[in-house]
Design a protein that fits this description.
six-stranded mixed beta sheet; binds adenosine-5'-triphosphate; four-stranded antiparallel beta sheet; Rossmann fold; ABC transporter transmembrane region fold
């Protein structure tokens, strides 16, 4: 049923057009059957030929129209679903996405959307088959009210039985879908942890036997059970169909003697119906899978939409001037399953001035990156307030606020497409920076794209710095940027690049463990267990 809602939401007018065209096509098909019955009874008089040809043409044209409308509708629905989900992911708060984890998001974006897309492909054919079945039922009703009533009672019983079997299919498909989340997690281990797996055969074997095989086997078990139940349902449907034909042939003449005359027409119509009914039954497992997928996508979509940040138009996407950024009693807690190990940052009071080089230091897990995410607006404080030049940062101006920052986190992502806001083209600007970062022998830029990003970690970080330079934001944040640099370039970074940024009026926040270089900062903020332990100007 969810699939119908998906289509109705896409465009109920088109659903109506398709339904009407499908109904006409189904009606014409039923009429054709009636005509064939009449023709057989009357030795096929030629006077019936024009009607026969006309009905066949109308049935074909309306069925094609209905299919075209449904093809557009269904493919548009999947298109919108993909974009809407991606937009919702982009709009969801970072912490919420971190809690969900990449596996769940990927499973929905790939597996579920694919299941929906698969069924959407056959929806037009399913609808035409339904229209033909309904049209024929109307014809059967017209042939004989009593026989139709008997057939209807039988069909309702059969549908209830099929529905019962389907509810079990649904249960197993849901269980199989649950395993998919776990499988995606293992696939990520396979791709991201391949080096570690290759180097440790014991770990590789235990991962393969105890994680990957267990999940894959569970998924196979549930899928097999679901498909076998679906096969039983399909076989049951066929048996029920033959039971109905038998009932009509041998039972009805005993119960309703007057119906004897219409029975040949009934049997012919039901035999004609066998094709569409069989096809409908064959689609049941895919329909059930798609419904489970739609439920998953809807739940995830609603969950993301509920937590979505307010989308705002940023009035000045490249802000340059600011004077004072303050954090007042700001706190942030990570919500984990175990309350004993939950980490809380703050309350923190800080005032940052434009044009400073500020070092944020402290031991592992002291909260430096968490503080960086709060300062850059990636996390909203649980309590307390951020203010930029006295203006409180709320959801309404968060997007604008974030545009003040260019950050390279330790788990940075490198885009190969460059953006530039200068009068120079990105290629010209980037070439200058490539030389400065000693990468011009390795990488070139053409049409705003880097020729390669397959480089060493230190070189990739230099490319990230290049994109940050091109961003040209007023505040730069580097989270352990120099950790992967060779001693010579590390020295260039602390002594030359940071100073150049300062001379250009930029504020630079540097998270660092390089205590040899702490002295190059104007200020040193030391964190310990989520609190500011010391804050010194030097
Ligand atoms: N996504 C997360 N979910 C739950 N807890 C987290 C998450 N990220 C960090 N933490 C917790 O917050 C604490 C502070 O982490 P944070 O990354 O801010 O420290 P850090 O000072 O940057 O450490 P390091 O020097 O090792 O990079 C950690 O001890 C961890 O327990």
């Amino acid at each position: 049923m969810s699939i119908i809602w998906l289509l109705l939401k896409a465009s109920w007018i088109n659903v109506m057009v398709a339904t009407l065209a499908g109904a006409i096509s189904g009606g014409c098909s039923a009429w054709l059957i009636a005509l064939i019955n009449t023709a057989i009874a009357q030795n096929a008089p030629l006077s019936l030929l024009p009607l026969f040809v006309g009905l066949a043409i109308v049935a074909l044209v309306t069925s094609s129209l209905s299919q075209f409308v449904l093809i557009d509708l269904a493919q548009d629905a999947v298109y919108r679903l993909r974009l809407q989900l991606s937009q919702r992911i982009m709009a969801a708060p970072l912490q919420h996405l971190e809690q969900l984890g990449p596996n769940q998001l990927l499973a929905v974006l790939t597996d579920d959307v694919q299941s929906i897309s698969n069924i959407v492909f056959v929806i037009p054919f399913i609808c035409i088959d339904i229209a033909v079945v309904l049209g024929c039922l109307v014809y059967l009703g017209w042939l004989s009210g009593w026989v139709f009533l008997a057939v209807l009672v039988f069909l309702l019983g059969a549908i209830a039985l099929v529905q019962l079997l389907l509810s079990h299919v649904y249960r197993y498909i849901k269980l199989a879908r649950k395993e998919i989340d776990r499988l995606f997690q293992h696939f990520r281990t396979l791709t991201d942890g391949i080096k570690e797996l290759k180097l440790n055969s014991q770990r590789k074997q235990s991962f393969f036997d105890e994680d990957l095989t267990v999940s894959t086997a569970a998924s196979r078990r549930y899928q097999k059970t679901a498909l076998k139940l679906a096969a039983v349902t399909s076989g049951g449907g066929q048996i029920l169909f033959f039971t109905l034909v038998g009932l009509l042939l041998f039972g009805i003449p005993q119960m309703i003697p007057s119906a004897q005359a219409v029975l040949p027409s009934y049997i012919l119509t039901l035999t004609f119906l066998m094709g569409p009914i069989q096809k409908l039954i064959e689609q049941l497992p895919s329909l059930t899978t798609a419904n489970v997928a739609i439920q998953k996508v809807t739940t995830m979509g609603l969950d993301l939409a509920e937590s979505a940040e307010i989308s705002t138009v940023v009035p000045h996407p490249h802000p340059q001037r600011w004077y004072r950024l303050t954090l007042e009693q700001v706190t942030h807690a990570y919500h984990t399953d175990s309350a004993d190990h939950a980490f809380t940052l703050g309350p923190i009071d800080l005032a940052l001035k434009a044009g400073e080089i500020v070092f944020i230091v402290g031991g592992n897990g002291s909260g430096k990156s968490t503080l960086a995410k709060l300062i850059t607006g990636l996390y909203m404080p649980d309590a307390g307030e951020l203010r930029l030049d006295g203006q409180p940062i709320t959801e309404a101006n968060l997007e604008w606020y974030r545009q003040h920052f260019s950050a390279i986190f330790s788990d940075f992502f490198l885009f190969d497409r460059l953006l530039s806001h200068d009068t120079l083209t990105p290629d010209q600007q980037a070439q200058r920076y490539l030389e400065k970062l000693e990468l011009d022998q390795k990488v070139s830029v053409q049409d705003g794209r880097l020729s390669t990003i397959a480089l060493s970690q230190g070189q990739r970080k230099r490319l990230a710095l290049l994109t940050a330079y091109l961003d040209d934001r007023p505040i730069y944040l580097f989270d352990e940027w120099a950790a992967d640099q060779d001693p010579i370039f590390r020295d260039i970074f602390y002594h030359q690049l940071l100073q150049e940024l300062k001379q250009r009026g930029k504020t630079v926040l540097v998270i660092s463990h390089d205590d040899h270089y702490f002295h190059v900062g104007d200020r040193l903020i030391k964190l310990d267990q989520g609190r500011v332990e010391s804050d010194k100007w030097q």
